[in-house]
Amino acid sequence: MTKNRKIVCRCEDLTEEEIIHAIEEGYTDIESLKRYTGATTGSCQGKGCLMHVLRILSQKTGKKPEEIGITTQRPPVNPVPLYLLVEGEGE
Amino acid sequence: MNVVVIGGGVVGLSVAYNLARAGAEVTVFERKYPLYGASGRNSGGITPLLSNESLIKLAARSIELYDHIQSEVDFNFLFRKDGYIKVAQNDEDLSVLEREMRLQKAAGVDVREIDPFEIRSIVPAFNPESVIGGVIGEGGVIFPWPVIWGLVKGCKNLGVEIRVEAEVNGILIGDGEVEGVKVNDEVVRADYIVNAAGAWSNQFSNLAGIKSENRVIKEEICVIESLKPFIDPYLLNVSNGVYLSQSARGEVVGGVLGRETGVDNALGVKNLNTKSSLEFLFRYAKGAVEMIPRLRGLSVLRQWAGVYDTGQDGFPVVGESQIRGFIQANGMGRLGMTIGPAVGEIVAQVIFKGSGMEEFSPIRFSSDGFKN
């Protein structure tokens, strides 16, 4: 069973089948797909999964990746611990 | 009856859901995609611990409606009702909380005072030295994303047409009455138009010839890495504006109460500023760590900003405007998720019965958009 699971997003534990299911449900743009499945919102913030999601969406919809685009990239680039931010004020 | 709803957020979709259930033909026009606006950017805090009797009632009704709607549409909103705590750091703010509490109690809300050390018995990580007191009562955290998807699903099941990436760029009026909207070159006839465009609602009022001056407020939020649940209630510090809660997914989501923002001339009226700032992270980190010291070692994964609107007097704008058939359902402030479902019911009453909530009627503003 588990051998057949193609994990697309490790943070949110999403499989390729789940992404495909969501696309078939009608979440066919990348921003909606993100907000329906949770893909790209976990601890990696999409570094591990965004390109997989884009590939699957492209394959399912027939749209080119550049037509689909990517989700809005939000700061910070890498996780920043709060203690640094508490100390960082004024720098 | 044909109704056009402008805006696919919690208010617009709740309006559409109620109208369609009562038999209206409804089309929702969303300029971007559902969840683009404040309904997709808020922290999901829901509570009737509010400062005005009508708002308290709308919030209490909305909490009931969330339970009904999530079973009607078969969608789990991940609504965790583990309470809502408001804390204060000075006497002045605490006395405001106490005054509001009496109003809430009178409206039948379960709420009481709580001292800082008792908060620690509910949230063991809480620093009792950080505040002087507070109140605890009904409320909790909802996950806004499934709320919107559930409402979209419910609307579609009722035959509502939801058009995304579809911007209304004209309001057709004849004889002081609405006739329809223009979307690109297409004309869509309507008996009623509901302006539920949130922070963007002024521009649609203006298209109808109404000078609306809702205030636009920008607020920022961030999310800290996901953890096993350790913060049950939603926490809001009314003195420094810092709030946080833990979502059903374990993430600690928090922010700082927003500030009024003007229109950025470089961006234009349509493109409100939703840029994130480092200054916000500093303010939030300070307030959050003060309240829950063990957050110190945890990392911010993502931050974002959103915009919402309030009427000039800080209250919602709900009801028929001076133009017949042009219904305002905007100005919810931070309370879109909190009162949206009940506002949907009220707007349906305005349209079907001609009765609404006088208190929040747009008629309270004179034609120049300011309060009489």
What characteristic shape of chain A results from the CA principal axes? globular
Greatest interface and its participating residue counts: A-B, 22 and 29 residues
> How many angstroms separate the termini of chain A?
53 Å
The CATH class of the largest domain in chain B: Alpha Beta
Shape of chain B: globular
Mean pLDDT of chain B: 95
Give the oligomeric state: heterodimer
Structural class from helices and strands of chain A? mainly alpha
Number of distinct helices of chain A: 5
Main pleated sheet of chain B: 8 strands, mixed
Strand pairing plus helix content of chain B: what structural class?
alpha/beta
User: Under the CATH scheme, which architecture of the largest domain in chain B would be assigned?
Assistant: 3-Layer(bba) Sandwich
Helix content of chain A: 40-55%
The tally of domains of chain B stands at: 2
Strand arrangement, major sheet of chain B: 5-6-4-14-15-16-13-17
For the sheet with most strands of chain A, the description reads: 2 strands, antiparallel
Q: Can you give a write-up of this model?
A:
- The complex is a heterodimer of chains A (91) and B (372).
- Chain A is mostly helical and 91 residues long.
- Chain A has one domain: Arc Repressor Mutant, subunit A (Orthogonal Bundle), CATH 1.10.10.
- Chain A has 5 helices and 3 strands, in the order E-E-H-H-H-H-E-H.
- In chain A, strands 1-2 form a two-stranded antiparallel ribbon.
- In chain A, helix 1 packs across helix 3.
- The longest helix of chain A is centred in the middle third of the chain and has 12 residues.
- Chain A is globular, with a radius of gyration of 16 Å.
- By secondary structure, chain B is α/β, with parallel strands linked by helices.
- Helix content of chain B is 29%, strand content 27%.
- In chain B, helix 1 packs parallel to helix 8 and helix 2 packs across helix 5.
- Chain B is globular and about 65 Å long.
- Chain B has 2 domains: 185 residues, FAD/NAD(P)-binding domain; 154 residues, D-Amino Acid Oxidase, subunit A, domain 2 (D-Amino Acid Oxidase, Chain A, domain 2).
- An 8-stranded mixed beta sheet of chain B has the order 5-6-4-14-15-16-13-17, sandwiched between helices. Chain B has a 6-stranded mixed beta sheet with strand order 8-2-1-12-19-18, sandwiched between helices.
